[in-house]
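User: quick one, fold this
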Amino acid sequence: MPIRRIAANDPWFEAFESAAEIVRATTGALVAACATDRLPYDLLARSKVFQARANLVLLEVHERLDESFITSLEREDIHRMTTSFVDIVETLTAAVGRMDAFGIDRPTEPLRQFLTALDALAAALAGVVTALRTLHPAVVTAACAEVDRLAAEVDEVYREIQRGYAMQHADARDLLRWKDVYDRLERAAVLSFQVVRVARHVLMRHS
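Assistant:
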């Protein structure tokens, strides 16, 4: 077993878990919204609630950092881990915002597949934070590898959607609207690598 230098109940882990839970709640809400034939009229408003919750977690982290002269984790790691989760929520909310602006109110099967893959990725990101509490190299490494695997699956779904753009959207304007939405969703998946990088850096420094 590794020598522990940070307690498993360290409050910074609680902040990370709160942010990760908001990401999972956001993706879960989007999956549920797409389960029907028509998107909820207030989906953007609902998404903004998650964004506000994420920003509040980030604000609380910044306030605690300002009040703390010494921290158990490196200040940069604390900031990067929290902002990575917040950025994911903001990117997902931006994608919903584009759907709202473009008048997209009917989910497509490719959108459902994309969001389902993102939801699985969000669950894996929460798993990274849970694993990080152990500071056990094998546990953290396995959790990070799961994120890498699921992020690759999201990328494959994205590429499959790209290959079918022309068949799914004959109208050029419609194609560009959906491309904007999917690009933002893909960006949310890419941001997951930031969480993994921070987790691996924390493991290297403290395990």
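User: anything notable?
Assistant: The chain has one domain: 11-206.
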